[in-house]
Amino acid sequence: MNVDLTGKPILIAGASSGIGAATAIACAKAGMPVLLTARREDKLKAVAERVRESGAAAEYTSADVTSPDDCERAVTTCVERFGSIYSVFANAGYGFEATVADCLADDPSSPDTDRIRAIFETNFFGTLNAIRPAIPRMVEAGAGHVLICSSSIGKFAVPRYGPYCASKAAQWHIGRAMNAELRSKGVFTSTVHPIGTKTEFFDEAAKRSNGKNLAENTPSFLMQPPERVAKAIVKCLRKPRAEVWTNLPVKLLAGLLTAAPNATDWMLRGAAKER
């Protein structure tokens, strides 16, 4: 199946930088009108201007994915500005470094200090908020494509990043179920599984991890520019498939780690001791 993307609007959550911004530019070049959302309006404006410079249509509105009302307003804005909504890319999210035990020592009565609950509010429930208002419109139109930015480590756990991995695994499972449930209605769902990507994600993770930066301990061959992910996403929009990967060896490794849990645990215990 090949989809002509010309004139098909896409809403991108988390579009102010990194993968979201790169995807906005790539989708615009493919002929898609783009509605950009994120919390930082100044950054959104800059990305929208870059999209418009290419001659494509772009609008933006500030929105926090933890707010269902913001997400509803964003989808409504997309429909009002472009006449419809064909795709949503739920890309907003963050990570941090901490052991699960340390996170369990947080105050569970406070969403501000319970780090596991907070990361799920943004990464998982934020994804649901972003796509919820769009799905009925896609089903009614009989066509659409939901994109969810999971991660390569949504398929296997990494020591000291357990809460992040768990939130990404939850996104993956929801995406797989939705793809089975909505395909007969003309709506595709794809999960995106980047390896390390050179974006502000790592800077934000360092701020939430007492200055520890995962990128400093990630081999260069496991890092990529956001444009590589954006290119793969546009390819998936044109020819829908269940998952988007940009690194075949890591994709195969994820399968092997799942097939051999005892060996995986042994390897991960060794990695945990090294930190």
Q: How would you characterize the overall build of this protein?
A:
The protein contains 12 helices and 9 strands. It is α/β, with parallel strands linked by helices and 275 residues long. The protein has a single domain, classed as NAD(P)-binding Rossmann-like Domain (Rossmann fold, 3-Layer(aba) Sandwich). The strands form 2 sheets. The protein has a 7-stranded parallel β-sheet with strand order 3-2-1-4-5-6-9, sandwiched between helices. It has a two-stranded parallel ribbon with strand order 7-8. The longest helix has 21 residues, at 162-182. It starts with 9 loop residues before the first strand and ends with a helix.
- Global mean pLDDT: 89
- What is the correct CATH architecture? 3-Layer(aba) Sandwich
- Specify the overall morphology: globular
| Portion in beta strands | 5-15%
Helix content: 40-55%
- State Rg: 18 Å
**Could you say what the CATH topology is called?**
Rossmann fold
Which sequence of SSEs, written as H and E, runs from N to C? EHEHEHEHHHHEHEEHEHEHH
CATH class: Alpha Beta
- CATH homologous superfamily label: NAD(P)-binding Rossmann-like Domain
Cα separation of the termini? 46 Å
The counted number of beta strands is: 9
Low-confidence stretches: none
What is the number of domains?
1
Biggest sheet layout = 7 strands, parallel
Largest sheet: spatial strand order: 3-2-1-4-5-6-9
Helical segment tally? 12
Secondary structure class reads: alpha/beta
